[in-house]
Amino acid sequence: MSSSLTSNKVSRPQARLSELSNSHTGELGVIAVDSHTRIAAMNPAAGVMLGVTTGDFIQRPLSELMERVCSRSDVERIMEAVRAALVAWQVSTFELRVVRSKMPALFVKIYVSAMRHQDNGEPAAVVTLEDITAYRQVGLSGLAHENARRYAEVLELATQLERQKEQYRLQSIHDGLTGIYNYAHFQTILADEVARARRYAHPLALLMIDIDDFKKYNDSYGHPAGNWVLRGVATILQQTSRQTDRVARYGGEEFAVILPETTGREAVAVAERLRRTVERESQLTVGFHRPITVSIGVAGYPEDADNPQGLVLQADARLYRAKARGKNCVCGSDKMTPARQ
Q1: pTM value?
Q2: Over the stretch 12-27, which tens digit does the pLDDT of each residue have?
C-alpha cells in the first residue's frame, strides 16, 4: 500500500481503492467510497482542500465528512450522485462551495464516477475534487454579468409563460364572439353567488335575456349581421350593468345577467332599463327596418328558488312568458313591481 495513504489496517479491496486515490497527482483530491458509502481512502490533496486530517475519516460515512464543510443541500447532492454511481454507474459533475474551519472558503468542482473492485467485484464510487477558486475569482465579474443576463432571460420567459397562461385562462371562460363570459363560466359564477347569498342571507337576482326575432334577422341579413347584433347587445349589457354584475352569453341569442345584492323588485327595474337601452340603440338598427328588441325573464333568490338550477328555470320560464305577451317586455313574479325606473 502506498505510504501516502492515511489508513492503517485495510482489506485488499480497500487497499485497491487506496491505490486509486493516491494514483492521482497535481491539484486533484480523490476520495474512494465503498458500496456502503463509507470512505475507503482519501489522498492528501483531498484532505487539504477540505481542511481535515485524512486519516480521521477512513471507514467513516462520506456524509459525515461533507457535513463539516458543505451546506445540507450540497451534502444531499453529493450523496445522491454517489448512490447513482454505485447503483447505475452514472457520472455526475457539479460545483459547490467548501467552508473550512479557520481557512478561506473554496469553490470546488466535483466529479463522481463508478468503478468495480478487482478482488470482490463490488461497486465503488470515486469522488474527485478540483479547486476552481482562482478561476472563479478571475472570472467573477464576467460570471456575475452572465448570470444576471441569464436571470433576466429566465425572468422574461417566466413572465411570457404567465401571460400565456392568463391568456388561455381568459379564453377558456369568455365567449369568443361577444367577449363576455361563456356558458360554462356562467354556471360556475351562479353557483358561487348562490352559495354566497345563502351564507350571508343576502338577496340575488338573475335575468335571462333573449333577442326578439333574431332568427329572422339572421336569415334575412346573414350571419355577419347577426354577429353584429349579438356583439352590440352584449356591449350594451356590459355597459349598462354594475361592476358587481356578471354578464354571460347563455347560448345562441340568449344572455344572462347575475345581479348580486339585488332583490326581485330591483331586478325588474334593472331589466326594464336594459330593455329600453337596447330598443333605442341606433347602432343596432343600421340596415334593419325596425329596432332590435329583447325580452327578459327575472327570478330572485330566495323567493323564487334556492339553488342555481331553480333560478335558471324560473327566469327562463318568465322569459318565454314575456315572449308570449308580445315580446320586448320584462316579466317577473307578480310581487316584483318595479322599485325604480
Answers
A1: 0.56
A2: 444 444 444 444 444 6
